[in-house]
């Protein structure tokens, strides 16, 4: 028996979260991926659940395990699979948080057989993946709160604000990579949340679980009712 307290802040509300990396197949044994641990996305999904939401977590390959059985987990591998799952789940969702580190490009075509080593140099033709956040921003209806993430190494604020606008998000969480205790793989994070109203909320360095709690409190505060 699990013992935990769920508040009623988000009772009856559907929330979807994307998390983790995506893997883009090169051939049956190789892929292009990234170092996303999924920790931030899982923590946000768990926090949304504890605040009473019906949560669907769409995750790429990670070693994370969800803490509560009540969270519906959909496992995907590629960006295309994550796109289909997210677009499908967005219907009727009050909240969508896109925290996945989606691969920007995929090989034009995955080879059916394992590619053999031949010439000294080798390159792979790649095409852009569909942008899930951009798509949800386009299909968003009144009453749906859409949050994205941004990972920047320079012109952080400017780039985060550009993503907020282009992708029609309600808020963007900027991950600061300039702090060695923040970001990929580690248990702590420091972020700034930019809201479409122009307000800016800074969350100082703390455990990812606490950052998730602050992010969900921010969402609840800015939910259009
Ligand atoms: N995102 C997405 N689908 C993609 C690429 C990104 O849903 N194919 C989402 C991410 O989950 C994140 C936001 O878009 O919430 C920003 O991702 P990021 O990689 O920072 O920005 P990009 O738009 O991909 O631009 P760039 O990588 O060039 O900075
Ligand atoms: Ca990207």
Automatic annotation (TrEMBL):
Its cofactor is Mg(2+); FMN. Keywords: Decarboxylase, Flavoprotein, FMN, Ligase, Lyase, Magnesium, Metal-binding, Multifunctional enzyme. CTP binds at residues 104, 114, 149, 163, 167. GO terms for biological process: coenzyme A biosynthetic process; pantothenate catabolic process. It catalyses: N-[(R)-4-phosphopantothenoyl]-L-cysteine + H(+) = (R)-4'-phosphopantetheine + CO2; (R)-4'-phosphopantothenate + L-cysteine + CTP = N-[(R)-4-phosphopantothenoyl]-L-cysteine + CMP + diphosphate + H(+). Residues 10-221 form the DNA/pantothenate metabolism flavoprotein C-terminal domain. It comes from the Bacteria. Residues 15-225 are annotated as: Phosphopantothenate--cysteine ligase. GO terms for cellular component: phosphopantothenoylcysteine decarboxylase complex. GO terms for molecular function: FMN binding; metal ion binding; phosphopantothenate--cysteine ligase activity; phosphopantothenoylcysteine decarboxylase activity. Its EC number is 4.1.1.36, 6.3.2.5. Pathway: Cofactor biosynthesis; coenzyme A biosynthesis; CoA from (R)-pantothenate: step 3/5; Cofactor biosynthesis; coenzyme A biosynthesis; CoA from (R)-pantothenate: step 2/5. Binds 1 FMN per subunit. In the C-terminal section; belongs to the PPC synthetase family. In the N-terminal section; belongs to the HFCD (homo-oligomeric flavin containing Cys decarboxylase) superfamily. Catalyzes two sequential steps in the biosynthesis of coenzyme A. In the first step cysteine is conjugated to 4'-phosphopantothenate to form 4-phosphopantothenoylcysteine. In the second step the latter compound is decarboxylated to form 4'-phosphopantotheine. Catalyzes two steps in the biosynthesis of coenzyme A. In the first step cysteine is conjugated to 4'-phosphopantothenate to form 4-phosphopantothenoylcysteine, in the latter compound is decarboxylated to form 4'-phosphopantotheine. This is Coenzyme A biosynthesis bifunctional protein CoaBC. The gene is coaBC. The chain holds residues 174 to 398 of 398 of the full protein.
